[in-house]
Amino acid sequence: MTNTSISTEPFSEEIARAELYGLLARLWFAPPDEALFKQFSVAVTQAPEAGGYLEAPWQALVAGMRETTVESASQEFAALFQSVGKPEVFPYGSYFLAGFMNEKPLAQLRTDLAALGLTRDDAQFETEDHIAYVFEVMRYLIAGDDAGVSNLEQQRRFFRNHVQTWVEQLCDAVDEQPAAQLWRAVAGMTRAFVVVEAQAFDLLEA
């Protein structure tokens, strides 16, 4: 994604949301590397909110990261999302919304991204409806420094149209895979976060 300058304002709840979108995007895009494993081993020991809805899935994700190695994570990622033939799980919106890749939901997403002034990096292999890309857009809409684009209304609209419509189905698909271990925890955290975000936007619209 291009045209994405991120704000460096002091830490806030909004920045925490943006960082969680960014973390989940990273975990859905590729297996974690040694640096990310080290962050989980020393830094992320607390749940986002004690007793909150995200506490249990966050702890499961932390535990999953601490119990996994770079090699085993790479093997699991390949087993789930990469295949010479048909992958076990397609992390693309078009697949869940239309049943096939590169269908109308992707075209609509591209139209909406263009309206936001966002374009796909030509060096990226994945299409814009990959979950990692969609989450990166949400991160930018929260923490970007262009108030005309990065604002609550744009977040709400994009979330309703391009996240809430299919991401929970993706998480369910991962849960159904016997090979899923770490990504079962990633899916659990993702599902819970999407629920929390949906509830927040419900309140905004009430």
Automatic annotation (TrEMBL):
Coiled coil feature spans: none
Keyword Amino-acid biosynthesis carried by entry: no
Taxonomy, superkingdom: Bacteria
SUPFAM superfamilies named among the record's database cross-references: TorD-like (SSF89155)
A Pfam short name: Nitrate_red_del
Keywords for this protein: Chaperone
PANTHER family, alphabetized: CHAPERONE PROTEIN YCDY, DIMETHYL SULFOXIDE REDUCTASE CHAPERONE-RELATED
Name listed for the protein in its UniProt record: TorA maturation chaperone TorD
Biological source species: Ottowia thiooxydans
